[in-house]
Amino acid sequence: MKKYTIITIITIGIILGFLTGIYLYRINKISKEQKIYMAEKVEDECTAIGELDNEDIASLITTNNDEEKTSPNCVITLKVYHEACKHLIENRQSIEEAEVNMTEEELKERFSDWEVQKFTPTEIVLYKEVDEFCDEHYLLKEEDGYITIYKLDENENAEFFNTTEISTEYLAEEDLEQIKNGIKVYTDKELNKTLEDFE
Fold first, then answer.
1. In this structure, what are the phi and psi dihedrals at residue 17, rounded to the nearest 5 degrees?
2. How many alpha carbons lie under 13 Å from residue 49 in its C-beta half-sphere?
3. 3-state DSSP helix/strand/coil percent for the chain, to nearest 5?
4. Would you kindly state where each structural domain of the chain is located, as residue ranges?
């Protein structure tokens, strides 16, 4: 019985030794093949770069840089300063499909008459000055018991714009007096805020 056990242990040891040898041989062979492949790859890349001129190398380096690009959920704020009335009008809008995945340089080319004040993948701020009167000048007046909105041009000429559903019947006497005399409001944001105050 002891003889049989010893023979079994020796046989198992030989088999394990043989399998270990095969395993180590294959790992060593794969490692050598990988080293040869990597050496060939590096040599190929170095040779390819060596054949490039300075402009091509500069282009390659620029292309490999991780430049920030606009994302699909980016928001653009357009700031326009109107010299004629000294008002800064801001409009926020979602990015257009054609502007997604743009670098700052590409955006500057697309909006060449704008100054880029901020550029991140999720937010862009563009600014420009124009020698124009902005179209966000309003006059609020009482008409037929309701607050009516007129647009004002640069000569203070009033043009009917809209009649609100805000009745002047329940306004405080001071507010009613102001509305009868006319209240000038600038920018859409200020218009909405003033109307909310009267509701």
1. -60, -40
2. 10
3. 45, 30, 25
4. 2-63, 75-130, 137-198
Count the neighbouring beta carbons within 10 Å of the beta carbon of residue 20: 10
Give the DSSP H/E element, type plus range, for residue 173: helix 173-181
Residue type, position 53, single letter: D
Compute the distance between CA of residue 62 and CA of residue 49 in angstroms, rounded to an integer.
Answer: 14
CATH architecture of 75-130: Roll (3.10)
- The closest of 42, 49, 44 to 64, measured between CA atoms, is 49
Residue-level pLDDT, tens digit, the chain, 199 residues = 566 677 777 888 788 777 787 877 777 766 666 656 555 554 544 444 455 555 554 444 444 456 889 999 999 999 999 998 888 989 999 988 888 899 999 989 989 999 999 999 999 999 999 998 888 899 999 888 888 999 988 888 889 998 888 888 888 888 888 888 888 998 888 888 888 887 7
Helix (H) or strand (E) holding 137: strand 137-143
